[in-house]
Write a structure and sequence with these properties.
heterodimer, A: about 775 residues, alpha+beta, Penicillin-binding protein 1b fold, Penicillin binding protein transpeptidase fold, 25 helices, B: about 160 residues, mainly alpha, Serine Threonine Protein Phosphatase 5, Tetratricopeptide repeat, globular
Chain lengths: ~775, ~160
């Protein structure tokens, strides 16, 4: 009995102990679950916050060309104006009244444009667009009128063309916008169709989930989603697109966390800026601001009801409801959104009917996304010295540049067609792939240093090596003007354009052996004037001149004009035997075009942060690097290069202006150059092979045709001006008629004469016969 | 006995009869004097200073670009007068880009840069202003006075 009782007691104790252990295990498990849950929520919270701030601040940087100034009298024909409007995404619309922002009408000789708003860099700031009437008058702007105020306008600008968007690897085009700048009609449309109870749930809408589940059960398939805006945002921000139960749970937790951390306005703003709304080529259109620009060519703040409904309808499936590709589907979807808005009491029946009658947007002209890839690369490099890559691709910087879109188009065409034409004419130049014939072209305004156009190769898709900036090649005779400038700067007056130098065989002992240059055509010309030697690019005379004036002085002149690289005072320096880039050459020639004043080359004018504050502004800078008189003498001789000299072929190629210029050909015809300029434009062209193979053509044969193509389309500023007036003379210069052969005063029986320019006090006083 | 006329020298034979010789000699004398005169007188061509074939005029004067740029220059001046050099510099850089041959735009931009304490930038702009404003002595004088104020190199005509 007692044994049995004892046994029972033991059993009871054991059971009690087991129950206590089970309770403890359960308690520990619960504690563990709670701890894990707490840790998980903490982790989610931290994750949510870090991603939130990264996402909401992220936007690509944008690169803009220069704006287009409009003023009465400006030469701009209708074709060019319509082109400029198309480049900026303006769409042609019907009607005769004031056009909406981003649209234009053509009414007889007038073009009515609804100007976009645009944020220029401070201190200028925001430009508020208005409807503008542009009257055309014989290829010029006749008058400008603000249609909203009915007043004449004397200067206004078309906003700059966006030439590039600096994207990160996600390739997302996105412009964040504050909720206060999104019109109510857009938020109402989005809420109507995506989350009507947005302001009443805490991130997860159980009522909606139940309703959706009931709907799916009764219809026998998964049709309705129960996701709130917050859940959609979480999905976009944090999660993969996979549809698993675990992901759904995680999404719900994150949505709840997000709602606890941020108010409804913040979440709605983030959603409107993060929602995917379509595709432009390989780039995703994200956010309502970017979508408004893509579909309607205007800011989101200017959208009306029908446009807002169309945009809201796109959220479900941007591809299926794309108004450009599937207009009927888009129209039906817009009706659904408008119907929901009416049913929810957000709009009246009449508003709905009116909005349904609105036409769908027409597709804007497809704008090239890579109009100036080499220029943009150059700009990125300029910026990378100051801004890390992450800042450029994610911080929404706005970069304002000097690029002139019409110059860039002309440059690109000149290179593409010019090289194709060379290959068609010379079989030996034809090579495929990466070994193909290449060219670079730089166009610069020598008065400001603005790089107007830059092409670094014939196809950016094939090779991104930027020859305009990075290809260090021998410039050959392109260097000679700097030798002559050094001589003419000599204050003793020994050297003038009429002074003579021997163009005869030359043998110079150097460290590498005896240096014996020769002329292009292999013969000597005896005593020649500096004018003749430069115009005909005589090597022997130029080499002698360089040594005579002092090679160190020539190096100093070249450096002052901005040439970098390893310039050494060797005899071959005068014939351009060192290496330089097309951009450097353009900058040095800008000093010749600018009367000895050299501007700093400019590609970036300024950078503005996402908040609208100026991060930097690069001012116009210039310095006098050579005296005006000698530079003028060189310019006048170089004008003769295109008339009687090595580039006289320009005339037969169709050039009718009065530019100055110089051809350049390096050893064994590896590089062909031409630098042509007027006081308002410098254009340098290089043609060659990347592997240094011989072209077999001089600068006049390979590079000059590309230059002519460029100025034929873009102009060079010399049209309508006489040759003598193209370069204005500085003080202290006289023009004297001289005997061409000797550079002295004409006398009977001497020969042909020409007008020569001299610095005062250096004009010849003896007759030509004394020199014979 | 008939006397033979004295044998004429070769020179006389070339001259022919004495009457003609005198005429020819006079003609040659005139020609020689003309040639000598020309040779001693100096160049056939005309040495000319800033006039004649050496162009100095302001090529941009009277163009629509100059008018548009001029309006911006006026706006820039007003901003300078209102002690807003930063805003003035932005407007005046625009004036330069609308008409880069407008010397007044460089001059006023230089004033704005001086007001912003950027004397080095102003010096270069004044160089350009001086070159472009040569046909306008009054404004050239303003440029010279600003250059003198800034110091630095001598003006390059």
């Amino acid at each position: 009995m007692s044994r049995r009782r004892r046994r029972r007691g033991r059993k009871a104790r054991r059971r009690k102990a087991r129950r206590r252990s089970a309770a403890l295990v359960l308690l520990a498990f619960l504690a563990l679950v709670l701890l894990s849950g707490w840790l998980y929520v903490r982790h989610v919270r931290r994750d949510v916050e870090s991603t939130w701030s990264r996402h909401t601040a992220s936007a690509p940087s944008r690169v803009f060309a220069r704006p287009l100034d409009l003023y009465p009298g400006r030469a701009l024909d209708r074709g060019a104006l319509l082109e400029a409007l198309g480049d900026r995404g303006y769409r042609r619309a019907g009607g005769s009244g004031a056009p909406a922002p981003g649209e234009f009408h053509v009414l007889g000789s007038r073009i009515l444009v609804g100007l976009h708003d645009f944020a220029y860099p401070p201190p200028e700031g925001r430009f508020e667009g208005f409807p503008l009437s542009i009257a055309e008058d014989g290829g010029r702007i006749g008058s400008l009128r603000d249609l909203s105020a009915d007043t004449a306008v004397y200067d206004v600008r078309l906003e700059p063309v966006e030439v590039a968007t600096l994207l990160d690897r996600r390739m997302v085009l996105r412009t964040p916008v504050e909720l206060s700048r999104v019109p109510a009609v857009v938020t109402q449309a989005v809420l109507s169709v995506e989350d009507r109870r947005f302001f009443r749930h805490g991130g997860v809408d159980l009522v909606r989930i139940a309703g959706a589940a009931l709907h799916d059960l009764t219809h026998g398939r998964l049709e309705q989603g129960g996701s709130t805006l917050t859940q959609q945002l979480v999905k976009n921000f944090y999660l993969s697109p996979a549809r698993t139960l675990l992901r759904k749970v995680r999404e719900a937790i994150m949505a709840t966390v997000l709602e606890r951390e941020h108010d409804k306005a913040e979440i709605l703003e983030a959603y409107l800026n993060e929602i995917y709304l379509g595709q432009r080529g390989p780039v995703s259109i994200v956010g309502v601001q970017e979508a408004a620009r893509h579909y309607f060519s205007r800011d989101v703040g200017k959208l009306d009801l029908s446009q807002a409904a169309l945009l809201a309808g796109l959220i479900q499936s941007p591809a299926r409801y794309d108004p450009f590709r599937h207009p009927e589907a888009a129209r039906r979807r817009r009706s659904i959104v408008l119907g929901l808005m009416e049913a929810q009491g957000r709009i009246g029946q009449e508003e709905r009917a009116r909005a349904e009658r609105e036409p769908l947007p027409g597709a804007a002209r497809e704008r090239p996304v890579d109009a100036a890839p080499y220029f943009v690369d150059y700009v990125e490099r300029e910026l990378s010295r100051r801004y890390p890559e992450e800042a450029l691709s994610r911080r929404g910087l706005r970069v304002f540049t000097t690029l002139d879109p019409s110059a860039q188009v002309a440059a690109r065409e000149a290179v593409e067609r010019g090289l194709a034409s060379l290959e068609a004419s010379y079989e030996k130049l034809r090579r495929d792939g990466e070994g193909a014939l290449q060219a670079a072209l730089v166009a610069m305004d020598p008065r400001t240093g603005d790089v107007l156009a830059l092409v670094g190769g014939r196809s950016y898709g094939s090779t991104q090596f930027n020859r305009a900036v990075d290809a260090r090649r021998q410039p050959g005779s392109l260097f000679k003007p700097f030798v002559y400038l050094t001589a003419l700067e000599d204050t003793t007056g020994r050297w003038t354009l009429g002074a003579r130098v021997a163009d005869s065989a030359l043998h110079v002992d150097t460290e590498e052996g005896v240096w014996s240059p020769s002329n292009y055509e292999g013969r000597e010309h005896g005593l020649v004037t500096l004018h003749e030697a430069l115009v005909h690019s005589y090597n022997l005379a130029s080499a002698r001149l360089g040594m005579d004036v002092g090679l160190s002085r020539v190096v100093a002149t070249a450096r002052a004009l901005g040439l970098g690289g390893r310039l050494r005072p060797l005899p071959s320096l005068s014939l351009g035997a060192f290496e330089s880039t097309p951009l450097e050459m353009a900058s040095a020639y800008a000093a010749l075009a600018g009367g000895g004043i050299r501007p700093d080359p400019l590609s970036v004018l300024g950078v503005v942060g996402a908040d609208g504050d100026a991060l930097e502004a690069r001012p116009l800078r210039m310095d006098r690097v050579a005296p005006a008189g000698p530079v003028y003498l060189v310019d006048r001789a170089l004008q003769d290069v295109l008339v009687n000299g090595t580039a006289a072929r320009a005339r037969s190629l169709g050039y009718a202006g009065h530019a100055a210029g110089k051809t350049g050909t390096s050893s064994d015809y590896r590089d062909a150059w031409f630098a042509g300029f007027t006081p308002s434009l410098v254009v340098v062209v290089w043609v060659g092979f990347d592997d240094n193979r011989s072209l077999g053509l001089p600068g006049s044969g390979a590079a000059l045709p590309l230059w002519v193509r460029f100025v034929d389309r873009y102009g060079d500023g010399s049209a309508g001006r006489p040759a003598e007036a193209t370069f204005p003379a500085p003080a202290g210069v006289v023009a004297v008629t001289v005997d061409s052969a000797t550079g002295r005063l004409p006398q009977p029986a001497c020969g042909p004469t020409r007008k020569e320019v001299f610095l005062e006090g250096t004009a010849p006083s003896s007759g030509c016969r004394s020199a014979r | 006995m008939r006397r033979m006329p004295p044998r004429a020298s070769g020179e006389e034979r070339r001259r022919g009869r004495p009457g003609r010789s005198i005429l020819r000699a006079a003609g040659r004398l005139v020609l020689a004097l003309l040639v000598a005169g020309l040779a001693l007188a100096g160049p056939v061509g005309c040495a000319s200073g800033s006039g004649g074939s050496v162009e100095t005029a302001d090529a941009g004067a009277g163009t629509p670009e100059r008018s548009a740029s001029g309006r911006l220059v006026e706006r820039g001046r007003s901003l300078l007068d209102a002690d807003r050099p930063d805003a003035a510099a932005a407007v005046l850089e625009r004036a330069v880009r609308v008409d880069p041959s407008n010397g007044d735009a460089y001059l006023e931009l230089a004033r704005a840069r001086i007001a912003l304490g950027e004397d080095d930038v102003a010096r270069g702009l004044l160089e350009r202003a001086a070159a472009l404003l040569r046909p306008y002595p009054d404004r050239e004088a303003r440029v010279d006075s600003l250059r003198a104020r800034l110091g630095g190199g001598a003006p390059d005509g």
